[in-house]
């Protein structure tokens, strides 16, 4: 078993939202409904509406007693996410949503439709405390952790949108705003609700859920001991500690070697291949020798249980960071593969709609400030 962890990060600036149905265990829901004079079977009944029909408004739950619907709404279904902006690109295949939370905090989610599947990229924190200099969210700092309900409700909203289109939400990636493993308990609770069958959850396969991290090694080991089969994605971005200390400041606490050791533990416990995320930045981390070193270290640490997901950087406005040229990207891929490690380039959907995490929220905040 992994050692217990007590990680300290930037203090959130705001409090948590009111309690939502998705924040509660089944037993807690039964207790809450009992206070309203409702029998315990109503908890599963409401859950089937929420997880099975993607309804979050009790006024539409016609099998609930009419006189109880308003009380259920007030007690268990506060409005968590209010849409601020919805932008589409890729001929409507990609939709980026900017949400306002009840305390005014902004967060983003992105729904990407592909032939035969639909992937939702969700946020786990409002902002991020990891301070990676090339990331719009990291530069904005951490507002607060999201509640379990705020995480889960992003999924419900997208699943409902897909159903209305005649499709189905099939994949979830925790690659939006925030560091998922810095909001550990709520993220794990959300994953269990996303993957449990109705009436306990949305029934999305654990194998179709990816949890991303910048490399909180103790939390990676703790996640491995949850005995889930979600995919772990590690945002490595460079194989050497000297540069990673700058690109991913948490590396000053958990070195590349510690992160890869934890990733190997996760791969062994889960039986899943680990994804290594690598944002390719011109003249910063795209050198041939770094590709060679990356391949060698990954092959040694993880063997066949690893895949490199190369990400062409989506630069933020005014940033000094830029994407590597195509020929350098192709050479990087070739050299990683030459070390015996699979490597592919991520499809870059939605670049013209400020698809990099935090860009839309930053634009909205800047616009509000300018208009104030």
UniProtKB/TrEMBL annotation:
CDD domains: Radical_SAM (cd01335). InterPro entries: Aldolase_TIM, Elp3/MiaA/NifB-like_rSAM, Methyltransferase_A, RNA_MTrfase_RlmN, rRNA_lsu_MTrfase_RlmN/Cfr, rSAM, rSAM_sf. S-adenosyl-L-methionine binds at residues 178-179, 212, 235-237, 314. The active site is at residues 108, 357. Pfam families: Radical_SAM (PF04055). [4Fe-4S] cluster binds at residues 128, 132, 135. SMART domains: Elp3. It catalyses: adenosine(37) in tRNA + 2 reduced [2Fe-2S]-[ferredoxin] + 2 S-adenosyl-L-methionine = 2-methyladenosine(37) in tRNA + 5'-deoxyadenosine + L-methionine + 2 oxidized [2Fe-2S]-[ferredoxin] + S-adenosyl-L-homocysteine; adenosine(2503) in 23S rRNA + 2 reduced [2Fe-2S]-[ferredoxin] + 2 S-adenosyl-L-methionine = 2-methyladenosine(2503) in 23S rRNA + 5'-deoxyadenosine + L-methionine + 2 oxidized [2Fe-2S]-[ferredoxin] + S-adenosyl-L-homocysteine. It is an enzyme of class 2 (transferase). Its cofactor is [4Fe-4S] cluster. It is found in: Cytoplasm. Gene3D superfamilies: 1.10.150.530, Aldolase class I (3.20.20.70). The keyword Transmembrane helix does not apply. PROSITE patterns: RADICAL_SAM. Keywords: 4Fe-4S, Cytoplasm, Disulfide bond, Iron, Iron-sulfur, Metal-binding, Methyltransferase, rRNA processing, S-adenosyl-L-methionine, Transferase, tRNA processing. GO terms for molecular function: methyltransferase activity. One of its GO terms (biological process) is methylation. Belongs to the radical SAM superfamily. RlmN family. This is Probable dual-specificity RNA methyltransferase RlmN. The gene is rlmN.
